Amino acid sequence: MTTVVMFTLVAILSPWIVPHDPLDQDLRRRLLPPFWLTGGDVSYPLGTDAVGRDILSRIILGSRISLLVGFSAVAAGLLIGVSLGLLAGFHAGRTDSVIMRVADVQLAFPSLILAIAVMAILGQGLGNIILVLALTGWVQYARIVRSRVLSLREADFVLACRAIGVPDRRIMFRHILPNVVSPIVVVASFALPQAILAEASLSFLGIGVPLPTPTWGNMLSEAQNYVATAWWLSVWPGLAIMICLLGINLLGDWVRDTFDPRLKNL
Predict the structure, then answer these.
(1) Of the N and C termini of the chain, which has fewer Cβ atoms inside 10 Å?
(2) pTM of this prediction?
């Protein structure tokens, strides 16, 4: 929890707490090592990159992009998936068949490969990444919500609502949806690190957020040619990704334990 809160605060405050302009280039300070190594500068505690930009500043600003993409993609995918899952489970029949067949077709393609293909068509851009990740992530929400709704649509409280003439839309969103919130929250908590990692992967491949915008994936991509001579270019963004994802996964475990009543007595 603490790690996630820390990264979130850093992402929100990043424009005001970066020690240097993350886009400022100066070849005179090219490839400065971390401050504790020979030749390092305490003004650039984690060193500089191949064109003299401050790595710490770029990591801090990169957290803003990563968390923005992660939260936005999860929120958009959740909205699409929950809506389609409610429709499929509540109306069943042909509606259910069409939605689930589309989901099955999408599941036949690896999500990252599908994202790469769509990004190659749409082009680079923050909005395009969020759209792509939302379109590749809605299926898991839809399938979970559908399965829950299928078990609830014949429940007594739903039959009572139908008997007194409550509209279907109100039944779905006012009476059924609150009963499927728990699994949705749990799935979303584990989908967030997947979205962040997917953004980093797409940026690393050069089809994500366009340069020179600092993202963790872009930093790793730029560090490929300096792994042997300037290890700090790849280690720090890699550590940022690892610690952030670890914190979110631990938060996901806590959310799962909190929302699953079967685990409360263990």
Answers:
(1) C
(2) 0.85
